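re: ur msg from earlier - yeah i can do the zinc ion complex, just paste it... oh wait u already did. ok heres what im feeding in:
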Amino acid sequence: MSSTVFDGIGLLYTADPIREEIEDAALVVEDGVVRWIGRSADVPAADERVDAEGRAVIPGFVDSHSHLVFAGDRTAEFAARMAGERYSAGGIRTTVAATREATVPQLAATTALLVIEMTAQGTTTFEIKSGYGLTVESERRCLEIAGQFTPETTYLGAHVVPPETTPDDYVRMVTGPMLDACAPHARWVDVFCERGAFDEDQSREILAAGIKAGLRARIHANQLGEGPGVRVACEMGAASADHCTHLTDADVAALADAGVVATLLPGAEFSTRSPYPDARRLLDAGVTVALATDCNPGSSFTTSMPFCVALAVREMRMTPLEAVRAATRGGARALLRNDVGTLREGAQADLVMLDAPSYVHLAYRPGVPLVAQVWRSGRRVV
Ligand SMILES: [Zn+2]
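and the outut:
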């Protein structure tokens, strides 16, 4: 494979703590991997050249939390909520009914369209969860579909208790036959630890069973109110606690001590008209913060990481630098990946060229399509 030099980069944001920003930068890519990073003036020769013409380049976004495999639509529920109704975990069941009805080709086609949307907005690595099937076979096939698009697949059989069974019977299924069917298709196990979904003991049992089956743990925690989710994440060695909207001081300290990433999902607060998590409080305590879309049809139907960056800056007390860092390196940390999310020598050549002189414009110019080019493993995909 030939080498390509990207030069004329006005501002390169690498997300690499060693040299996080380089002005007048260049970067050489070979065999899908970054081989050289530095100043444009010093760039070595390469076979091909891409001139950024002064634009900014950042790593491809890492969206570490999405629910892309589903059928159906919840437009009416959203409209009702905007007219004053409250969000509760129960709305998930609407999507479950539609997803069970859908065929595999239908589900795969919907997922593919959302992946195209994500890619067009600069996302090059993403996670996909199951969780809208809630039967052994339906969860298995959702994960099989997810696996066609990403290696970061998450078994979320424990999304909500389906109406046809009891909580005890369902937890037995999630930790038994459903896990056996799903574990070969998943890298991660997740649980919606929340009032109206799964309680502390159930969450521990579900994560422990997944870990025993060879999966790594992540969790939906503390979205709708304070609760045990973050504590469970820290005690069970989860890679990430996701949502983290309602935290006690003890939760914040536990995340910092355990090195568990706090993944914030501001699209959910936006779409449920809820108070946003306070990222500043987490950052000041030394917690690693990630940003992700939580793309799902009920509570956050966006695939846009730039939108999440803008929300994080405006609503969660993050600086533009912190928000872009959380959307790249933070997401990679949440997925325990060190080959993506940063641009440094040896990393996967996933990069986004912005129609802007700086990454700051992602928050400064909200809603504007600034993603000009996207390269994944050194190949142009947008
Ligand atoms: Zn979620």
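cool cool. The chain has two domains: 3-60+342-380, 61-334. ping me if u need the other ligands too
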